[in-house]
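for the writeup, i need someone to sanity check this before i put it in the appendix. the sequnce is what the collaborator sent (i think, or maybe the updated version? ugh). structure was predicted straight from it, no edits. if anything looks off just tell me and ill rerun, i have time this weekend
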Amino acid sequence: MTDSVLYVRGEIQPWTDYAGHRAPAGGAPLLALLDDLLPDPGSRTLVVGPHSPELIELAASRTGALTVLVRSVSDARDLRAAVPSPTVTVITGALDGLAGAPPYDVVIAADGLDRVLGADSPALDWPARLALLSALATEDAVVLVAVANEFALTGLYDRRPVGERHGDDEWRPLHDDPARPTSPAQVAAALGPRLSRLYATFDAAGLSHTLLDAAAAAATRPGRPAARLAAEALAVTAAHTPLLAPVADGADAAARAGLLAAVAPGWLALLGSGGATHTAYAPAGSPSAGGVLLADLDESGWTLSVRGQAAAVPASRLPDTESAETLLFRLAAAENVPGFRAIAARLGAWAGLADGLVLLDDLYPDGDDFARGLTHPAGGEDAPAILAAAYHRLRDRLVRAHRRHPWPPWMVDSDDLVTTWLGMSGIADNAVAVKRGREIADGLAAPRAGEPDLRTVLAGAEDDRRRAADLAGKVFGLERTLGFRDQSLRTREQEIRALREELRTTAEELRATRGELRTATAELLRLHALPVMRLHSVTRKVAKVRYPRQFARAIKHRLRKG
């Protein structure tokens, strides 16, 4: 296996550029671009730097002789084993070790010029490396070269210190290279008049996700199809990066300023003329999952088609207008509820004819109608559930971005806002549709990043502080109320104790009075028993006799009877 790999100066061992966070250049959009770009077999092609085996196989099938240069000996051997074609020559070494070789008809450096030098190579800056690459191409060669952007939005929002953003798997000779181009204009100036097309590139840890023509990216505005492509690609690019703030906000601001191409993670420059290429290459959504979306922009809008799909889908047209979500957000921020209601009514009338689910951020007004955009999620749901799901997603994105709106918090924090929007669309209170819409929206939601961005954390901390202050006020009020009640209970306790003392005193007085009564009663009984009291009693009774003679006769009469 060693004999099948050629060596030039500058090889590295042990080392690998095929493992680690950043993968070798590849991905379906890049392969689709090369499929359009590469000429018919018969040309000599050079691939410089780490590239995926799929890309190598595609280039080998479209060329007469293919040479691949990688700086790692182990990577070269593994690549040789993965691509055993006799038309493929694998060389291990640095780019400067290949100087003087015969020029090639096609030169591909889709991974850029940062992983092409060895540890013993001179510290060549970016223009010097480009000069070495240009010397290996013929005058009319097709050259594809990637350029990393040090002013990328993902780098600006990266909250890690600069020294902690690169590991050994991303080793570069010069991290601080003032000669590196860092804008589309600088890239165009560095590459010269042979530059035929420049793509803003968005990748997922090295694998291309979206290729968008830099001119189209610079001309787009927030809410338009090109801006949506870039925003989704930026979110994928930043998925594994600890952020200061959501990149979507920065993408909107850059698109509004016409700088979306300038803050892309990198660029892919095409020199010379190959096959016809498209304005954008991106992953295709459902129902064509696994294919590549091909988009072309002209004065009347976008033409969309999908390559590599299981079933043929006819090309479609898409107006280059702002999405329904962008319009609704703008009306909500301006507190223009009548305007919001008018668009909601149009959506309610259109949703009854919709085929599949609706994403308001990928739905574009087309005259009095609406046109679906880049993603077509399938789903056999009725109109109320479709609109409820769309409004749930709209509410979630409204809250997550802390956007301005005219509705009170108690509506936003519940399903009442979705119910209200459904009412604006002509759908009466439908709890079943609202519940089903929530389930659909949760299924369509993108997976959350494992680590939230710093601004979200700070906003959450501010909400927690505000909530703590509110709770502290409530606790103070409750403590004050409890204090008043405690004081009232103490007063009542003192009154009860005073009453108990009075009752005790009254009871003692009653006991004393009873004793005196018993003593007086005993004394009266003793007095009644004396002869004098008996005589007194008889005297009292005699004193009551008013007629003595009659009384005497009555006594005599009774005595005679007795």
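The two ends are 163 Å apart (CA to CA). DSSP finds 18 helices and 15 strands in the chain.
thx in advance!!
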